[in-house]
């Protein structure tokens, strides 16, 4: 009986590998696409064996890979087009060796103190993370056992569904109207362990109906995760009340109004008991030392700067909506720093705009809306260039 390959000594394994390369007349460094069909079949069987060792329920999940081809103006990701907070930039320019060589504070205590002061809550009501995505992932894992139900309104932030899937949480939705209204009783009808609401909503921009949100918070027996990534543009927030409402968790970010997307800093506001569970779920050292110091500087010293830039973004959002209407389009109401506009064949239109050096974000077949483009508010020169590219793309469609 022949020996299995795993029973062979290392030298024989190396010989086996080299012999196969010689037999196929291939160099040892041959890429898979260079292999003949017989070798590809052999390689494929190994790949299938490895895949079978991972979680089958993830088989249809894909990595998040937005287009990366160079563009002149990128209005696709809702990040700030109005500069960088000066105090944060000063910290980055003054980075010390210890920012690279030493671990940061395990749970970002100095940053938590700065954020608590900004929001107006106790330090024990703050959890931090690597962007608000990390906060959502950790929160879902902390409160939703595998097989638990998550309720949400649709359409909404697609990454939330991804995190639910990763954590084995089942989901169901109720419709969200363009004006932000929805049926709170239908949302809670199946007694979900977790309710996810995003207000202002991404990608539509709608501010969710305040009365409906309040009814959900009052009646939900599980945890309500309220994603307020764009709250600074809307002028309304429930963050300060979250610590006194045991079933409410508010997720925030410094990527949008504070213009620090590259540092990846998010945070949650919740009752201290819930914060502890989130931190257990997410683990230590999620915010790097330099990011922690720069973020703390921004929320401490750059609040006036942030408010000024947020106001500029809101003003430019209204100009953007008017420009879109001038092209015969009907943008949806927005309380964020972007505009969502229905455009048939949005993916094709976005590709044509990218070819002209302008990036916007297409979404195909949003429930109740259809194909849309989501466009970040930006300075006049960028918006005019975007509108010109969109006009050309529409004319060629």
Strand order of the largest sheet: 2-8-7-6-5-3-4
- What is the CATH third-level topology name of the largest domain? Aspartate Aminotransferase, domain 2
Outline type? globular
- Counting structural domains, the number is 3
At CATH's second level, what is the architecture of the largest domain?
3-Layer(aba) Sandwich
CATH hierarchy, class of the largest domain: Alpha Beta
Q: What Rg, in angstroms, do the CA atoms define?
A: 25 Å
Q: Multimeric state of these chains?
A: single chain
Please give the largest β-sheet.
7 strands, mixed
Count of extended strands: 12
What share of residues is helical? 40-55%
Account of the protein in words:
Helices cover 42% and strands 15% of the residues. The protein is an alpha/beta fold and 397 residues long. The protein has 3 domains: 5-54, no CATH class; 73-80 and 304-396, Aspartate Aminotransferase, domain 1; 86-302, 3-Layer(aba) Sandwich (Aspartate Aminotransferase, domain 2). Strands 2-8-7-6-5-3-4 form a 7-stranded mixed sheet, with helices on both faces. The protein has a 3-stranded antiparallel sheet with strand order 9-12-11. Mean pLDDT is 89; it is low at 1-50.
């Amino acid at each position: 009986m022949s020996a299995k390959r795993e029973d062979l000594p290392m030298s024989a394994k190396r010989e086996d590998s080299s012999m196969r390369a010689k037999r196929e007349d291939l160099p040892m460094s041959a890429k898979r696409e260079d292999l003949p069909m017989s070798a590809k079949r052999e390689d494929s069987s190994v790949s299938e064996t490895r895949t079978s060792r991972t979680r089958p329920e993830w088989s249809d999940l894909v990595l998040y890979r937005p287009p990366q081809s160079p563009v002149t103006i990128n209005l696709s990701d809702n990040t700030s087009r109005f500069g960088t907070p000066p105090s944060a930039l000063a910290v980055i320019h003054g980075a010390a060796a210890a920012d690279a060589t030493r671990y940061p504070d395990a749970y970002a205590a100095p940053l938590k103190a700065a954020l608590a002061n900004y929001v107006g809550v106790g330090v024990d009501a703050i959890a931090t993370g690597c962007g608000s995505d990390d906060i959502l992932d950790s929160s879902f894992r902390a409160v939703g056992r595998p097989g638990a139900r998550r309720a949400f309104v649709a359409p909404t932030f697609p990454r939330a569904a991804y995190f639910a899937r990763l954590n084995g949480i089942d989901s169901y939705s109720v419709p969200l109207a363009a004006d932000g209204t929805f049926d709170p009783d239908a949302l809670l009808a199946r007694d979900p362990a977790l309710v996810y609401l995003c207000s202002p909503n991404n990608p539509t921009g709608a501010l969710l109906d305040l009365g409906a949100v309040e009814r959900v918070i009052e009646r939900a027996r599980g945890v309500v995760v309220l994603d307020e990534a764009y709250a600074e543009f809307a002028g309304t927030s429930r963050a300060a009340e979250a610590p006194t409402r045991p079933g409410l968790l508010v997720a925030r970010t410094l990527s949008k109004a504070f213009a620090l997307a590259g540092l990846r800093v998010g945070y949650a506001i919740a009752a201290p008991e819930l914060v502890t569970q989130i931190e257990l779920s997410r683990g230590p050292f999620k915010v790097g030392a330099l990011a922690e110091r720069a973020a703390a500087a921004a929320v401490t010293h750059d609040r006036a700067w942030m408010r000024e830039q947020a106001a500029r973004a809101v003003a430019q959002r209204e100009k953007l909506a008017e420009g879109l209407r001038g092209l015969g389009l009907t943008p949806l109401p927005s309380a964020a720093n972007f505009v969502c506009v229905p455009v048939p064949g949005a993916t094709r239109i976005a590709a044509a705009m990218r070819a002209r050096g302008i990036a916007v974000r297409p979404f195909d077949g949003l429930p109740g809306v259809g194909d849309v483009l989501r466009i970040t508010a930006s300075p006049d020169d960028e918006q005019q260039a975007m509108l010109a590219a969109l006009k050309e793309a529409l004319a060629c469609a």
